[in-house]
Amino acid sequence: MRVLIGELSRRTGVHAHLLRYYESQGLLDPGRGPSGYREYADEAVVTVTQIRKLLEAGLSTQEIAVLLPCVTGTTPDLAPCPELLATMRARRDELDERIGTLARSRGLLHDYINATERRAAEHRQESTAG
Residue 84: phi, psi to the nearest 5? Predict the structure, then answer.
């Protein structure tokens, strides 16, 4: 059975504009009905669920396009395709680097806040002492 984009949107909870975006990224491949409307196979519901969960894991649509042939089920389950582990490890390493950068930025910001609060307290003490 084939469904139109509105029905796929309803069944997955994903807005139609995102479904069209997934199509533009090569993640979905709908057919076209006689009227020219996009028609999705029933398994598109599973594919959209997989895409959403992989996006939640921090993968980009480009990475998901590489991984999608290795994905089964709605969990999703990942088959041990050669490119799968390399892609996921590369993304994890990028996230680790970003986390490190954010932690350093947070630490510096914390230091600036503390220094500014100390100066403000000193200024208040000078104002009340004088």
Answer: -60, -55
14 in Cβ contact with 52 (< 8 Å): yes
Helices (H), the chain: 5-12, 16-24, 44-56, 61-67, 82-129
What is the rounded distance in angstroms from the CA atom of residue 113 to the CA atom of residue 20? 45
Looking at the predicted structure, is the pLDDT value of residue 121 above 80?
Answer: yes
* Alpha-carbon gap, residue 110 to 46, rounded angstroms: 44
pLDDT 10s digits, 47-101: 999 999 999 999 999 999 988 988 888 888 888 888 888 888 999 999 999 999 9
Tokens of 64: 């998901």
The answer to whether the CB of 71 falls within 8 A of the CB of 54 is yes
Going from the C-alpha of 18 to that of each of 3, 7, 32, 61, 72, the distances in angstroms are: 16, 14, 18, 11, 21
Could you give the CA distance from residue 2 to residue 16 in angstroms, rounded to a whole number? 16
